[in-house]
Amino acid sequence: MNHLIAPSILSADFANLQRDVEMINNSEADWFHVDIMDGMFVPNISFGFPVVKATKQHASKPLDVHLMIVDPDRYLKDFAEAGADSITVHYEACTHLHRTVQAIKQLGCRAGVAINPATPTGMLKDIIADLDLVLVMSVNPGFGGQKFIEHTYTKVAEVKAMSANTNPNIYIEVDGGVGSQNIAKLIEAGANVLVAGNSVFSAADQRAAIAQLKRP
User: Fold this and answer.
1) pLDDT tens sequence across 144-164
2) Which residues pair with 172 in a beta bridge?
3) How far are the Cα atoms of 2, 162, 173 from residue 91, in angstroms, in the given order?
4) 142: alpha, beta or left, given left = phi > 0 and alpha = psi -120 to 50?
5) Nearest to 214, CA basis, from 17, 85, 24, 52
6) Enzyme catalytic residues
7) What are the distances in angstroms from CA 58 to CA 27, 154, 194?
8) Which phi and psi (to 5°) does residue 38 adopt?
9) What tens digit of pLDDT does each residue of 82-136 get?
10) What is the value of pTM for the model shown?
């Protein structure tokens, strides 16, 4: 599988969101990554359904919605209706994870589970066969622009090995501090979806930055 690039609109210019959405449409990016934060599961608040709907209205590529929220089951249907193509919940936020994953699939979305940097990959052993996507957080969730955690390479390789026999076509996504300095090593470890925020939106030529990540 060729790796996918999912620019994070958390790093976009919210005063010019349509412009930045259209930039991604016209770039070599594959997905839009949409970070939803509630100020409880993570110490920050991002945006909710209106921004997701507005992004979907102009986006020509799938919306990869990452719920960094407590009790995400309350809002799965709402995010699906707002335009999510993928919905990823956190292992740490779900009491009945299998039920949540099945609910996402019943809504017609890809189902993903994210793990924080301190969560062992082994916690996914009993659910990985049911997933479309595993998201390995390479920073502690809640803020953009954080420093990449080096242990991520090992965790990605562990997820790749765990899924090899039961779910070989799973998406293994990495979010946080991804850029030209580490993307090749992440792909070598087994990642095939890379979320890029600051490395894209802080670049003078954003489309060129995406193109560089597509050909590391």
Assistant:
1) 667 899 999 999 999 999 999
2) 134
3) 26, 16, 15
4) left
5) 24
6) 35, 175
7) 14, 37, 22
8) -110, 0
9) 999 999 999 999 999 999 999 999 999 999 999 999 999 999 999 999 999 999 9
10) 0.96
